[in-house]
Amino acid sequence: xxxxxxxxxxxxxxxxxxxxxxxxxxxxxxxxxxxxxxxxxxxxxxxxxxxxxxxxxxxxxxxxxxxxxxxxxxxxxxxxxxxxxxxxxxxxxxxxxxxxxxxxxxxxxxxxxxxxxxxxxxxxxxxxxxxxxxxxxxxxxxxxxxxxxxxxxxxxxxxxxxxxxxxxxxxxxxxxxxxxxxxxxxxxxxxxxxx
Length: 195
What we know:
With 195 residues, the chain is an alpha/beta fold. The protein has four helices and six strands; from the N terminus they run H-E-E-H-E-H-E-E-E-H. Helix 2 links the parallel strand 2 and strand 3. It is globular and about 45 Å long.
């Protein structure tokens, strides 16, 4: 009986909604056109503790749409590109990526996190700052290397109240939560290949 009570108590703690997510550009109605081209997944900018996991998950997620038309940049040693590509690159940078890779599209993913620092995060409810919070932003951008333009850019901001949370890794939870929300949006709004 005691075990049942402890299980119900733990389950009620786990169900507390301590994580919140905000879409930065909620007016975006289009997704990504996966129907053509060769795709390159660039180096994902993330802390070392989560980088390997999010790289593996994102490669799997994009492979579902692209099958064998996607390559992780480290798997192709002949590429001539910088390891880090900043978000919102200019046209020249995007066209240089085409010259250095000979791919059609480039996927750039950046994961940012802060603890109780809202200076880089446009969160409406600043009451969160008074709590011990972890904030994260995950951004996915896609560049059309042939046209030299950004064809997709979306960010999700997440926050988690560390005191109310049952997780031992709040940063991991909020970053992966942001990423999953972004991928769900992409899956719903994107043009998929029809066989």
